[in-house]
Specification:
By secondary structure, chain A is α/β, with parallel strands linked by helices. Among the domains of chain A are: 241-346, Flavocytochrome C3, Chain A, domain 1; 431-536, Methane Monooxygenase Hydroxylase, Chain G, domain 1 (Up-down Bundle). Chain A contains 15 helices and 20 strands. In chain A, the strands form 5 sheets. Chain A has a 5-stranded parallel sheet with strand order 7-3-2-11-18, with helices on one face. In chain A, strand 19 and strand 20 (550-555) form a beta hairpin. Chain A is globular, with a radius of gyration of 23 Å. Chain B has 244 residues and is of the alpha+beta class. Chain B has 2 domains: 2-120, Ubiquitin-like (UB roll) (Roll), CATH 3.10.20; 123-136 and 149-243, Orthogonal Bundle (Fumarate Reductase Iron-sulfur Protein, Chain B, domain 2), CATH 1.10.1060. Chain B is built from 11 helices and 7 strands. Chain B has helices at 30-41, 89-92, 123-131, 149-154, 156-159, 166-170, 172-176, 183-194, 201-208, 222-226, 233-243, and strands at 2-7, 16-21, 60-63, 66-69, 103-107, 114-116, 119-120. In chain B, the strands form 2 sheets. Chain B has a 5-stranded mixed sheet with strand order 2-1-5-3-4. Chain B has a two-stranded antiparallel sheet with strand order 6-7. In chain B, strand 3 (60-63) and strand 4 (66-69) form a beta hairpin. In chain B, helix 8 (183-194) packs antiparallel against helix 9. Classes of the chains: A alpha/beta (565), B alpha+beta (244).
């Protein structure tokens, strides 16, 4: 093993990830007068949070005065198919309003009611108009605001830094290893407490709404470090993603298109939702619409690019221009005028409900390691309501940041194992030095195609078994042989992809293993061969066993108020 | 279609241009073309991107000598596009051999140091926001704030800024004067000044009219033409100049 040079950087609280949850955590920790570092894998402010369109669920009752946290809680649990950790869901609904006010305090501009209060609109499966919003760019508004909030605080931001591995010492979190993407330097960040806010992993699927960096780094790093991971089989597929152009494949087409009257057609011009959910048609639940579209496509009634048609051209142009401005722009960029032509859409991997298992302090099963945002599991159960994710980033971001700061004050920084660090950097270096091997872009395609064809919306026993077997093979044969095409360290996308690949494989395997274990349909997990005797009221928890083996076990639900029917 | 792409392995300046033959399909964007080059021809080429849909503002670059977002620029319509920018050296100096009728020219965004290929160092752009202290300082209070819908609407244009730096890269003043904070920082300062919830408007007025701010702008309006989100910082700077 070569002795590779690296720099060590010390702080009290380290936040890995700079989206909505990461920024909020860093701000909270910094306000408690600690030295806080936030790592961002891309430029600050470019995180996937900015792509959230819809809104932020909070029971302010500004338009429907009867709304309250209790009802928000009930909607969240029913929507989550009773699999949510109810202690965490209670925190979500109780803290959402204070965290929304925090955003205002930082300058966020929400849309307003005539009286000047924060406006709220209706979203799927909610009892009241509860979703606060800023036009159809709510996530972007929140992201911009948080970045301004970060500037105001004394947070040290390191952007274009890729954390590769969590360091654990004496049973406590010690820091992370990382590379500087700009120059290729090796870095070690050490802290008393670490907050994971690394987002989701839509990118393990061929078609996804997620930004390019959402490959599941956090899930894989936490698993490798010995952290418990929960509900990984629960993945929300949004029914309408773009199918073309190639670079925009899977990009979200907002639910508002159907809300405003958009209709779904197959290649025969039939409004096929009539055959599946005639009462609600296009406004059926996200999972129901997604399955209907996929059924049409698989039966050969799809569009040339592998989707179905979503048409709004029957509506007056004025209405479309007024209500769906950003959709017009989004499709214009793809050469389609939605006022005259139908859009082509198909389901797209959208949100991971599962993730790092946390307690009511947002602490994971590794002391000193906290988690917030999409990489965290348990809050949304089997299905997430639109608008609960943005709220979750703020509620659990602040909770994780505050508790990480308190942990950091109460503990000394623990040591690190230099051998472990060298081993990690040698692993990364080997990808560049290997003479022969598999190119990361080829390996990635094989993986994402496997996940998209086998572990998608319709799941069945033989596919799950096949996916698990294949993923084990990829882990053994492909991962150790990844070879970067150009052996340079400065801003080398091939190297970044190569490092991401192992994280993707580990994450994909957790998804497939959990989906294999859950024999019945529940929440977003739909088994075509569903076992009717499996009522599904349990969570699946994954942890690393002896010799690095993936251990899965069923655990009882955490129930505080509402028992499953 | 041929793509002539600026390269810089060690940063600093463009060292040479590489020519790639891209298979163009209907609806293809310049970002699609760069992916094709990276995946099939040259994995060493570096460029930034994230959201693929003009929300994150990562993929700002110079395309056929005009500053644009790669994800928002259709390859097929390129020849007919013309921003009518006021020329300055990075927009007029063409690499030898470039044939605009047959090739798409892709270069890094001007006015910021090149880190590698199409990736530029954004530090200067971000530092402007930091140096002007551009964040909210609301009046003290615990409760929910109110803002009338009409006050909220006044902010509409400003909030669309995605910090892509296309305005910064299109500005002839930024090219010449290193100290100039640039158009988007001034629009941001005015966004806080105009916000009905802001207690100390003077603070943002001072920021906008600092010697490195609005006084340096020559109202050339390249930023208005280059902005992909309709923020039109130049119009705001005109207002700032009038108010001062």
């Amino acid at each position: 093993m070569d002795e590779l040079p690296y720099k060590t950087i010390l702080c009290d609280v380290l936040v890995v990830g700079a989206g909505g949850a990461g920024c909020r955590a860093a701000i909270e920790a910094s306000r408690l007068n600690l030295d806080v570092i936030m790592l961002s894998k891309e430029l600050i402010g470019k995180a996937h949070t900015s792509m959230a369109e819809g809104g932020y669920n909070v029971s302010l009752g500004n338009v429907d005065p009867d709304d309250d946290p209790e009802t928000h809680f009930k909607d969240t649990i029913v929507g989550g198919n009773y699999l949510n950790n109810q202690e965490l869901a209670e925190i979500l609904v109780n803290d959402a309003s204070q965290r929304a006010f925090d955003l205002e305090e930082m300058g966020a501009l929400f849309d307003r009611t005539p009286e000047g209060k924060i406006a709220q609109r209706v979203f799927g499966k909610q009892s009241w108009r509860r979703t606060a919003y800023a036009s159809d760019r709510t996530g972007s508004e929140i992201m911009i605001t948080l970045v301004e909030g970060i500037r105001k605080e004394s947070v040290r931001v390191f952007d274009e830094i890729f954390a590769t591995r969590l360091l654990v010492h004496d049973g406590r979190i010690a820091g992370v290893t990382a590379i500087d993407l700009k120059y290729g330097d090796y870095l070690v960040f050490r802290a008393q407490a670490v907050v994971m806010a690394t987002g989701g992993a839509g990118r393990i699927f061929t078609v996804t709404s997620n930004a390019q960096l959402d490959v599941g780094d956090g899930y894989a790093m936490a698993f490798e470090a010995g952290c418990d991971i929960i509900d990984m089989e629960m993945i929300q597929f949004h029914p309408t993603g773009m199918v073309a152009p190639e670079s925009a494949k899977g990009r979200l087409v907002t639910e508002a298109v159907r809300g405003e009257g958009g209709i779904l057609l197959n290649n025969k011009g039939e409004r096929f939702m009539n055959n599946y959910y005639p009462e609600v048609m296009e406004l059926a639940g996200r999972d129901q619409v997604a399955r209907s579209i996929m059924t049409e496509v698989l039966a050969g009634r799809g569009s040339p690019d592998g989707g179905v048609y979503l048409s709004i051209s029957h509506l007056p142009k004025r209405i479309v221009e007024f209500r769906l401005e950003s959709m017009i722009e989004q499709f214009e960029d793809a050469g389609v005028d939605i006022r005259d032509e139908p859009m082509q859409v198909s389901p797209t991997a959208h949100h991971f409900m599962g993730g790092l298992k946390i307690d009511t302090n947002a602490q994971t099963t590794i002391p000193g390691l906290f988690s917030a945002g999409e990489c965290t599991g348990g809050i949304h159960g089997g299905n997430r309501l639109g608008g609960n994710a943005l709220a979750g980033t703020q509620v659990f971001g602040a909770l994780a940041g505050g508790n990480a700061a308190r942990f950091a004050k109460e503990h000394e920084r623990t040591g690190v194992d230099r051998k472990e660090i060298q081993k990690e950097f040698n692993r990364l270096e080997a990808m560049l030095k290997r003479k022969e091997g598999i190119s990361p872009s080829v390996a990635r395609k094989e993986l994402t195609d496997l996940m998209w064809s086998k572990v998608q919306i319709f799941r069945k026993e033989e596919d799950m078994a096949y996916a698990v077997k294949e993923l084990k093979r990829i882990e053994k044969e492909v991962v150790p042989n990844i070879k970067v095409d150009m052996p340079i360290k400065r801003f080398n996308p091939g190297w970044h992809q190569a490092i991401e690949f192992e994280h993707m494989v580990t994450t994909a395997r957790m998804v497939a293993e959990a989906a294999f274990m859950r024999k019945g349909s529940r929440g977003a997990h739909y088994r075509v061969d569903g076992d009717p005797n499996d009522d599904g009221y349990y969570n699946i928890v994954i942890r690393k066993g002896p010799k690095g083996k993936m251990k899965l076990q069923k655990e009882d639900l955490v129930i505080t108020k509402i028992a499953p029917p | 279609m041929l793509f002539r792409v600026a390269r810089s392995r060690d940063g600093g300046a463009v060292s040479h241009y590489d020519l790639y033959k891209v298979d163009v399909k209907k609806g293809m964007t310049v970002l699609d073309a760069l992916f094709q080059i990276q995946d099939k021809m040259d994995p060493s080429i570096s460029f930034r991107y994230s959201c693929r849909g003009a929300v994150c503002g990562s993929c700002a670059m110079l395309i056929n000598k005009e500053p644009r977002l790669a994800c928002k620029t259709q390859v097929s319509g390129l020849k007919d596009l013309n921003m009518n920018l006021k020329p300055f050296p990075p927009l007029t100096e063409v690499p030898p051999g470039w044939n605009p009728d047959e090739e798409v020219l892709v270069e890094p965004l001007p006015n910021l140091p090149i880190l590698k290929d199409l990736v530029v160092d954004m530090t200067k752009f971000y530092n402007a926001l930091e140096s002007l202290n551009l964040w909210a300082e609301p009046a003290e209070g615990e409760k929910a704030r109110t803002q009338s819908p009409s006050d909220r609407r006044k902010m509409e244009r400003y909030v669309n800024c995605i910090m892509c730096a296309l305005c910064f890269g299109s500005c002839p003043v930024n090219a010449k004067k290193k100290e100039y904070v640039g158009p988007s920082a001034l629009a941001k300062a005015w966004r806080f000044h105009e916000d009905s919830r802001t207690a100390d408007k003077e603070r943002y007025f001072k920021a906008a009219t600092t010697p490195e701010g609005a006084p340096l702008c020559d109202l050339i309006m390249n930023c208005v033409k280059a902005c992909p989100k309709g923020v039109a910082p130049g119009g705001t700077i005109r207002k700032i100049k009038k108010a001062s």
